[in-house]
Amino acid sequence: MTPMILFTLTTFESGQYVDFEKVVCITGDGNYSFIHLVDGQKLLVSKCLEQLELRLPPSQFLRIHKRYLINLRFVESIFPKQIKLTDGKVYAVARRRWPSVHSYFKQNSRR
Prior knowledge:
This protein is mostly beta strands. The chain is built from 2 helices and 10 strands; from the N terminus they run E-E-E-E-E-H-E-E-E-E-E-H. The protein has a single domain, classed as CATH 2.40.50.1020. It has helices spanning 49-53, 98-108; strands at 5-10, 15-19, 23-29, 32-37, 42-45, 61-65, 68-71, 75-79, 82-85, 90-92. The strands form 3 sheets. The chain has a 5-stranded antiparallel beta sheet with strand order 5-4-3-7-6, with no helix packed on it. It is globular.
């Protein structure tokens, strides 16, 4: 089976391919983003979060904050205005995004 390729990453060392399934979350920092992988690696790329978000399937990734984009497959629990991922990290949900994020999880927990 061919892995689903996220995009070619041009890191400071070389180009790499990243499988969607291995991305836990992406955190933005201005014109750079950190891609957090299942194995604990953290890759720095020179693309803003908005550019990366356009390349991701919206059914699998959710923007919860101007700085955070999470892979829904790695959500462990949801708290008021926070989401904990399976890597143990807790991410804040932006105040204006909270109603839609909360609604999303409420609807999908019934399935």
